[in-house]
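Hi D.,

Good news: the full-assembly prediction came through. Inputs first.
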Amino acid sequence: MDMKASKKKLGLKERYRLMTRDLGWETTYQPKDKVFPYVGYEGIRIHDWDKWEDPFRLTMDSYWKYQAEKERKFYAIIDAHAQNNGHLNLTDARYLSALKIFLQAISPGEYAAHKGFARVGREFPGVGTQVACQMQAIDEIRHAQTQIHAMSNYNRYYNGFHAFADTRDRIWYTSVARSFFDDAMSAGPFEFMIAIGFSFEYVLTNLLFVPFMSGAAYNGDMATVTFGFSAQSDEARHMTLGLECIKFMLEQDPANVPIVQGWIDKWFWRGFRVLGLVSTMMDYMLPKRVMSWREAWNIYGVENGGALFKDLARYGIRPPKGWDDAEQAIDHMSHQFMLGLYQWSFGTAFHSWIPSDDDMDWLSAKYPDTFDKYYRPRWDHIKKLAAAGTPFKNYGLAKLCQTCQLPTVFTEPDDPTLTCHRETAYKGEKYHFCSDGCQHIFENEPEKYIQAWLPMPQLFQDPVKGDLGEWMKWVSLLDGKDNGDYAGSEDQKNFEAWRGLATTNQ
Amino acid sequence: MPVAATKDYVGVPRDVAANFHGKQLVYVSWDRHLLFAAPFLLCVPPEMSFREMVDGPLAMLFQPDPDAAAIDWTQVEWLKSNQPWTPDFNRSLADNGIAHKDQIRLRTPGLNSLLPAA
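Then the structure:
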């Protein structure tokens, strides 16, 4: 009988090498540039792929183990949330508007990021990069799924959650996030990494996730908080990947610096625009607010972003071109968006409302230089129209920006009383923009952005041909249920009735 | 700049006039009247007269603004593509040179109910 020799256990370092770096081999049937055909055309020069740092040293087998553990915890809490009537523990059902926007616009973005990382993981020749991108691709699809599952319980009780996939494809405001990801996914692998890995995940993600998850906690939404915890450790890994990637590009060749700078300029501005709606969630949509958009920007934009770009200065990188315009917009954008959402609320699969007197006082305190001066008079007038029985609805539809696809609600950086009008002509067609930043992005690659599917002009083309009722059917919007003012909505009535049952003896 | 691509890259615009079944898009904004969150997008026939556009869709859309009733249309200052411009109210949009996706702006100095006092 043979003696069973005990297998020598691999050391951590050996194991890591075996499970990652050893996966790369020299190709023999095909030359390397045929196997990785997309890595050169953007002009980025890489001399040594082994210089790619992978600070987490996470291997696929341990990745699965960690993620499985997190999934078990996540679903245990989601079950408990459903069984304990978690949908009644909210501060107020107005909170759900923020969630609905998230589900319709951001969760599909997670899925898009999954596809993008799966693709660039294949396109990059370096093994460290491949493994990191593969993990992020799986993270992102997990985030899309867990977000959908976390919010699905609300779909049983409230309107606006039932058709997020149609909404994602067809309704007007989701095209902002969709075009952002489409733009990144149709770029080369390096630009994709700057767009999503660096600009979105590193520079801007804190502005989205921190306020959003704290907002969920402040407003009694256990389901979303649980998702946030489950995603947190992934986000740390994603931020590291984004930062490693940019440093790697900058260190590999000085000729990469101007290309990377151009992408930082572009993707900072695109990201700033796409995250603009978060300002409205923070300042208007959370019944119990965490902090103002201005306060969040001071922490995550000015301080963190400022430190980051100071750090990158040694490579010859300067802060993004739109940085100063962004700073000037901070005290205005949430008000500009909410005024728009309110007057176009017949076409949104979430509710908006006129801020209460308390809300307006909070806004004056948080925006002492802008709210009372520019925005309170408009809300007061809107309130008067509602009281007179002629609530303000703007059926004019809106001019959209050819680049970011947002309605052009923004004012001149130095004049908050004047709408920013920007236009250009390309091959005989006119194109309009919300800002200098978006116009520059268009002018750098007009051939790409002339293809933009702009939902407002689209409404007047086939198949809808300008019929608002047909349009609602086409985007799966239930008129009188999903849309309109929160005051008087089914969501409001139901929440109050059910919550009343839980908290009173009536 | 051309789009970085592995082969010739040619885009097809999605909003050309031919897609609008004989109509065209016109963008209109009333300067310094920000009750309206963004410039209006109208889809109208190019044969419509300028006056019809003003008396029809514009009058209806402007109505919620407290200054709407006080507009003196003979005094309005107009811009097209951000340049001063004078429309002929009796001629069609096409004859006024308003092309597909043109941006018209109007200014009504003195009317500023919802503006901060200067």
